[in-house]
Design a protein that fits this description.
Layout lengths: L3 H13 L21 E5 L2 E4 L4 E4 L14 H13 L8 H13 L5 E5 L2 H16 L3 E5 L17 H4 L10 H4 L2 E4 L4 H11 L3 E6 L15 H12 L2 E5 L11 H6 L5 E4 L10 E5 L1 H4 L18 H14 L4 H23 L4 E5 L2 E5 L8 H4 L4 H13 L2 E2 L8 E2 L6 H19 L1
Parallel strand pairs: 3-13, 5-6, 5-7, 7-8, 8-9
Antiparallel strand pairs: 1-2, 2-3, 4-10, 9-10, 11-12, 12-14
Helix pairs in contact: 2-11, 3-11, 7-8, 12-15, 14-15
The protein binds pyridoxal-5'-phosphate.
């Protein structure tokens, strides 16, 4: 496979962009080689600047649950662009999207739109601190909640792929307020809350770990978090930036039947445009300006292009059978991948909730960041590059989730399973 145009663009990009990229997860540091530069994409396929075509399981890191350039989403964006791209004043589109979010997510009565998942989470933490008058935040090792200062301690996603446990530049008095616990460890949560519960403003969790690869919650984990936070008068924040509208129309909270106080959203609700949102009960959300005094604002918040795309996205998702079909396709793919590794005798673990999934190259059962770290990343590196040669694009890191879209066909899934078998055998050497 010829990738010389990507390589040429990457060498130019490095002169004007840090590391040649605008988000570190796009770099190929963990797998070697130069990142792809994309020319266009349609449905489940992306085409790079050398004309190579890839079946895509990154989906722009989650948002594209209906694939690239879905005709209805494209036409909604185009139509709105002709009417104006931003007004700095209210639109009906914002109400429509908010109503859809409120109708779908069990714990949300009122929602504020922002521009990214990071912004949603930062604002949610400020809100929790503002309501409780407390400073401390509890999070879990390997979870990623965007790049807000309070949350870059033992975080997942790009920080794991690049090996950055502590990010420089975070004020130490702020980092000290962030307490990290191992995911899925209920005893450690109880212990911490017994000691410091009255100082904790909020516990934030990815209700399905999605930024160290997919790590589902063990039975009882989320309900224990609900119980412990409530008892301590701390807020429970579900970061559903990935899981919201991914695992069900009502997100992970609906899937597991546990309601948080604040929910953070992003990715899917923007239909592929930059969006974030946070929401909760009216009582909680009334603390935000202009009703309350917790200030949070945004020049482009509720942007009409993003609202137009998000509205169509949620309409498409609310059609009959969408999640059943995603479940069935994802199960088929993971079953095929599992058969591959079993036949070849490669130690691997599979995790999956609906259309988010991971294959971890380890013999340890995956429950938290420690077990995730036991993976053979050198093996992953060879597998990734083999798969790319076969025309299948997955995230360039062992520690990121795979995403199925509603437009992947059975034929593409079969092709992926075949490509994967070849790449696995080659990686074995
Ligand atoms: C992607 C992600 C974020 C950050 O969202 P951005 O839009 O990249 O700022 C926050 N939390 C989770 C769980 C995410 O996966």
């Amino acid at each position: 496979m010829n990738r010389k145009n990507s390589s040429r663009l990457f060498s130019i990009a490095k002169k004007v962009l840090p590391g040649g990229v605008n988000s570190p997860v796009r770099a190929f540091n963990a797998v070697g080689g130069d990142p792809l530069f994309i020319k266009s994409a349609k449905g489940s396929r992306m085409t790079d600047v050398d004309g190579n075509e890839f079946i895509d399981y990154v989906a722009s890191w989650g948002p594209l649950i209906f694939g690239h350039a879905h005709p209805e989403i494209v036409s909604a964006i185009t139509r709105q662009a002709g009417l104006g791209t931003s007004y700095g004043a209210s639109t009906e589109l914002e109400i429509q999207l908010a109503e859809k979010v409120v109708a779908a997510m069990p714990s949300i009565e009122v929602v504020r739109m922002v521009n990214s998942g990071t912004e949603a989470v930062m604002s949610a933490l400020r809100l929790a601190r503002g309501i409780t008058g407390r400073d401390k935040i509890v999070k879990f090792e390997g979870c990623y909640h965007g790049h807000g200062d309070s949350l870059l301690v033992k975080a997942g996603s790009g920080l794991v792929s690049l090996g950055i446990p502590e990010c420089p530049g975070i004020v130490s008095s702020l980092a000290e307020k962030t307490l990290n616990l191992p995911y899925n460890n209920i005893d450690r949560v109880r212990e911490l809350f017994d000691k410091e519960g009255k100082e904790i403003a909020a516990l934030i969790v990815e209700p399905i770990g999605g930024n160290m690869g997919v790590v589902p919650p063990i039975p009882g984990f989320l309900s224990a978090l609900r119980e412990v936070t409530e008892k301590a008068g701390a807020l429970l924040i579900f970061d559903e930036v990935i899981t919201g509208f991914r695992v069900s129309l009502g997100g992970a909270q609906k899937h597991y039947g546990v309601n948080p106080d604040i929910t953070c959203l992003g990715k899917i609700i923007g239909g592929g445009l930059p969006v974030g949102a946070y929401g909760g009960s009216r009582q909680v959300m009334d603390h935000i300006s202009p009703v309350g005094s917790v200030y949070q604002a945004g020049t482009l918040s509720g942007n009409p292009l993003a609202m137009a795309a998000g509205n169509v996205m949620l309409d498409l998702l609310s059609k009959e059978g969408v999640y059943e079909s995603l479940e069935q396709k994802s199960a088929k793919l993971c079953q095929g991948l599992r058969e591959n590794v079993e036949e070849l005798g490669i130690p691997a673990q599979f995790t999956r909730v609906g259309s988010m999934f991971s294959m971890f190259f380890t013999d340890q059962k995956i429950v938290d960041f420690e077990t995730v770290k036991s993976c053979d990343t050198e093996f992953f590196k060879r597998y990734f590059n083999g798969l790319l040669e076969e025309g299948v694009y997955i995230a360039p890191s062992q520690f990121e989730a795979g995403f199925m879209s509603a437009v992947h066909t059975d034929e593409e899934i079969n092709l992926t399973i075949k490509a994967s078998r070849k790449a696995l055998a080659a990686a074995q050497g």
